[in-house]
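Example record

One chain of 194 residues, shown exactly as stored in the release files.
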Amino acid sequence: MGSKSVSSSNRMRHVLSALVQNQPGVLAHVSGMFASRGFNIESLAVGETENAHLSRITVVVNGDDRLLEQIRKQLEKIVTVVKVLDISRADFVERDLMLIKIDAPPSQRLELQGLVQIFRGRIVDVGADQMMVEISGQEKKIEAFIDAVRPYGIRELARTGRIAMVRGMFEDVEDAAPEEAVSDAPAVIGHSSL
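Predicted C-alpha cells for this chain:
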C-alpha cells in the first residue's frame, strides 16, 4: 500500500494522479506549471492508459493540504488535463522500477546473486566485472537495495519514478468518466467542457 509520511509541520507526501489527453506537449505544460510556481516534484512518471487517447501522469509532491489544493487547481486549468485526483489518503498500490549496474567481479557474484534474490530482483545483464539488476517495488525496497549494494560499487543507476493506482473503486465527486471525456477525434477538450 502507498505510504503516508507526515511531519510535525503538517507536511504530507501527496500522490497525484492526473488523466491527460495523449498529445504532444502535455507533459511540458504540466511540468512547466510546477516549475513556474516553484513547486518541487519528488517523482514524476507518465505513460499511456488503456485508452490510447489518454495518458496518466503520477506526480509525488511534499506539502500541506493548502499547497496540494493550489497544485490541483492549477493542473485543472491546463486544457489537456481531463481530471486530477489526490490518491494519498486512498488505499493505493505504488511501484518504482530501477535498473542498476553494480561492480561484480567473479569472486563476489554469488554474494550479489543472493542479494538480488532476497530483494526479488532480476539480473538482466552480466559483463566481465559488472552486472545489471532490475528491481521493482515500493520506494523503501528500492532504497534498501541501493544501500545493500553500495559497498560493492554502483556504476550507474536509473529509476522510473513512482506509478500508483487506487485499489478497487475510487469515487471522487468531481470525477468525469474518461470514456465520456475523450472521443476518437484528437480534438483538445478543456476540463470545463467535460
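Notes: The first strand starts at residue 12 and ends at 21.
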